[in-house]
Design brief:
- The complex is a heterodimer.
- Chain A is rod-shaped and about 190 Å long.
- Helix content of chain A is 44%, strand content 23%.
- Chain A has helices at residues 8-44, 64-70, 74-77, 88-92, 95-106, 154-165, 184-190, 194-197, 211-214, 222-227, 271-323, 329-360, 370-380, 382-388, 404-420, 479-489; strands at residues 49-53, 59-62, 108-116, 122-133, 139-148, 169-173, 179-182, 234-239, 245-257, 260-269, 366-369, 391-394, 399-402, 428-435, 440-447, 494-498, 504-511.
- The longest helix of chain A is centred in the middle third of the chain and has 53 residues, at 271-323.
- In chain A, the strands form four sheets. Chain A has a five-stranded antiparallel β-sheet.
- Chain B contains six helices and five strands; from the N terminus they run E-H-E-H-E-H-E-H-E-H-H.
- A five-stranded parallel β-sheet of chain B has the order 2-1-3-4-5, with helices on both faces.
- Chain B is globular, with a radius of gyration of 14 Å.
- By secondary structure, chain B is α/β, with parallel strands linked by helices.
- The chains are: A alpha+beta, B alpha/beta.
- The A-B interface holds A 299, 303, 306-307, 309-311, 313-315, 317-318, 321, 346 and B 19, 21-22, 25, 28, 101-102, 104, 122, 124-127, 129.
Chain lengths: 517, 153
């Protein structure tokens, strides 16, 4: 007898199984597709490095962005520890382990820091680490999601272009004093390759005076601390890779960034300028010394010349006094020439001495009464005033910062000239002073004399410059040169206004006395 | 009063001066001013001190009533002579007049610091020089009262 089984149950079960199988296949396919899409998605991301690590930091997955940014292919890197992305000094201080520890502790860790590519070059990266845990909370690994901060940002590209185009060395430093960006000029100036400097302490190339400025003291914010330095050139010493030092001037400006306040430093090699400055100082020193010697020489020469000259003058005068009219007329004439020559030489030496004194004597500008100085000059001129019948008048004159003796000499020469250079009539001389600006007094000495042709205005202040024949007016041609020197030694300018036949006005300015009188 | 010009005794003047031209001019000017002057000349500082201390050939040298002292001298300059005179108790009462070409501020100051009795610069013009010598005679040898040092010796 044939057993008859009801197979309907089995068929049902088989059908169910087949359905189950179909669903499983579908689900598997869906999963595969999903994983595929996920991988494609990750691989499609070129701008970000995305990879996973096991709990010890060994790399288990690698995307195309990671390959592009870090330079390793998946085959090269999977199975290796992620610590190799850190600079050696960070590895030495256990930074990779620390990062994992922090990530594990808080689930997530973000940082910006220097990283090393496969070829050894460095770049500044922005990184996010995430701890991966299963449903039970066991740590299964980590993911890193990072990108290269030094690329692909348009604004940064512009900034970089600007940086490279700058004529000075430019270095961008973060608040920790680390170099995050630099230009070609900086590489050249300090003799390093760019990668050798990125991430390094700026102290390595500018040992003193820069890093200190970045770190604000407790009382001030970094911005405040920096604000004081902005725009001012700070002179420091730069240190090249070869250990040589060179003088630099740096200008700081702040730069806000995602990392906080960065500082851009423009660094200028001022070796040439320093040399020029030193050269200038040396030259000025030489000039001063030579001026001093010249002044010394002039004074000694004048004094020593006085002695023999006095002999010539005195004895020719004695000859003239005792023998005039007792010898023949030729002898009288010869003696007269000798007396005149000796007298002129005497005046010349005295004027030269006065000129040399006006320039070489240490100037002491004190509160001086210009009125007193004028009075003193007029006393010295009393003979000339009496002889010519000159009328000398003046306004009230102010207290000024001056060497009173030199001021007196100045008045004496100007008033003396005003009296002397007269064609006819009674000389009238008027001295006045007018306030010129906040701290200056403009003096004028005005006369009704013969005047001066404007073409000679420059010339008359020169040494030994004379406009008249000796028979017309005696003089050494030094008087106005002395005036010019005195006024210039007081920081002023002397000028003249005149027309022939219209009289002259000599003007000069002096600084007002500090003590209010 | 030591009426030098009137007491019959000649007036003794020591001129310390190295320039023969100046010595001659001074002699001429004094002759015009005062006939009773004995002008003694020391040509340098060492000679001047020997004269004043009556050393060597100067045993019988008279004590001068006034000393006219130039500053720039050979061997020992006027400043040193002045310092020695003013450091010597018996010599320091003799009026010592600096008579020099220098009008340098430093020389003037230094001379008075060394107790010069007055400081005169030699004028260049002959008539001014003569007038200066006359004024020395009128003041130092006529107007001023000096101690009777000479008589007490």
């Amino acid at each position: 007898m044939t057993e008859v089984y009801d197979i309907s149950m089995r068929k049902k079960a088989e059908k169910h199984l087949a359905q189950m199988e179909g669903r499983r296949r579908l689900a598997e396919e869906a999963l595969r597709e999903s994983e595929e899409r996920y991988r494609m998605l990750l691989d499609g991301i070129q701008d970000y490095a995305i990879f996973m690590m096991d709990p010890r930091g060994e790399i288990v997955s690698w995307n195309a962005g990671a390959e592009r940014i870090k330079g390793y292919t998946a085959e090269q890197i999977i199975g290796h520890n992620f610590s190799r992305f850190f600079p050696p000094e960070d590895i030495a201080r256990g930074r990779p382990e620390e990062v994992l520890r922090m990530t594990a502790a808080s689930g997530r860790h973000e940082e910006q820091g220097m990283r090393v590519r496969q070829d050894g070059s460095r770049f500044l990266a922005s990184l996010t680490f995430t701890a991966l845990r299963d449903a039970a909370g066991n740590l299964r690994g980590f993911s890193e999601f990072s990108h290269d901060l030094s690329e692909s940002k348009e604004s940064e590209a512009k900034y970089r272009g600007l940086l490279e185009a700058a004529p000075d060395a430019m270095v961008v430093v973060n608040p920790e004093g680390e170099i995050v960006l630099l230009n070609l000029q900086a590489e050249k100036q300090f003799g390093y390759h760019r990668d050798e400097l990125l991430g390094q302490k700026v102290k390595n190339i500018i040992p003193e005076g820069f890093a200190e400025r970045l770190i604000a003291d407790a009382l001030r914010s970094a911005e405040d601390a920096l604000a004081q330095q902005i725009g001012t050139g700070i002179e420091l010493i730069g240190l090249r890779k070869d250990g040589s030092e060179f003088p630099i001037e740096i200008m700081l400006s702040p730069l806000e960034s995602a990392e906080g306040i960065l500082v851009t430093a423009a660094i200028r090699d001022i070796t040439a300028r320093k040399k020029a400055e030193a050269h200038l100082l040396r030259k000025m020193d030489e000039l001063n010394r030579s001026n001093e010697e010249l002044g010394h020489f002039a004074s000694i020469a004048s004094h020593d010349l006085q002695e023999p000259l006095r002999m010539v003058t005195s004895y020719t005068q004695l000859l003239s006094k005792r023998y005039k009219g007792k010898l023949d007329s030729d002898a009288d004439e010869f003696i007269a020439f000798a007396v005149d020559g000796a007298n002129r030489m005497q005046r010349l030496i005295q004027d030269l001495l006065a000129y040399s004194r006006a320039g070489t004597k240490a100037m002491e500008l004190l509160d001086a009464s210009s009125e007193k100085a004028l009075q003193h000059a007029l006393i010295n001129l009393r003979g000339a005033i009496a002889d010519s019948g000159a009328l000398v008048t003046h306004d009230p004159l102010p207290a000024v910062l001056a060497d009173e003796r030199q001021l007196s000499q100045l008045f004496q020469n100007l008033v003396g000239n005003a009296i002397k250079y007269q064609s006819s009539g009674v000389p009238r001389v008027h001295i006045s002073a007018a306030k010129d600006g906040a701290k200056k007094w403009s003096f004028s000495v005005q006369d009704n004399g013969m005047g001066i042709d404007p073409q000679y205005f420059e010339r008359i202040f020169g040494m030994f410059q004379r406009l008249h024949k000796r028979e017309e007016f005696a003089g050494t041609g030094i008087g106005l040169a002395i005036c010019k020197r005195i006024v210039e030694r007081h920081g002023g300018i002397i000028s003249v206004e005149s027309q022939p036949g219209q009289g002259s006005i000599f003007r000069f300015a002096l600084t007002e006395s500090e003590a209010k009188s | 009063m030591k009426a030098i010009a009137g007491d019959g005794l000649p007036v003794e003047v020591l001129l310390v001066e190295d320039s023969p031209g100046d010595v001659r001019l001074t002699q001429l000017a004094f002759r015009d001013a005062n006939k009773s002057i004995n002008l003694h000349v020391a040509w340098d500082g060492v000679e001047a001190m020997a004269f004043l201390r009556r050393e060597g050939t100067n045993v019988h040298a008279p004590r001068p009533d006034i000393i006219l002292l130039d500053l720039n001298l050979p061997k020992m300059d006027g400043r040193e002579v002045l310092a020695l005179i003013k450091a010597d108790d018996s010599l320091k009462i003799i009026p010592t007049v600096i008579l020099t070409t220098s009008d340098a501020e430093a020389d003037i100051l230094k001379s008075y610091q060394l107790l010069a009795n007055c400081y005169l610069t030699k004028p260049v013009q002959l008539d001014e020089f003569e007038a200066l010598v006359k004024s020395i005679n009128d003041f130092w040898l006529t107007a001023v009262k000096l101690p009777h040092q000479r008589q007490s010796e």
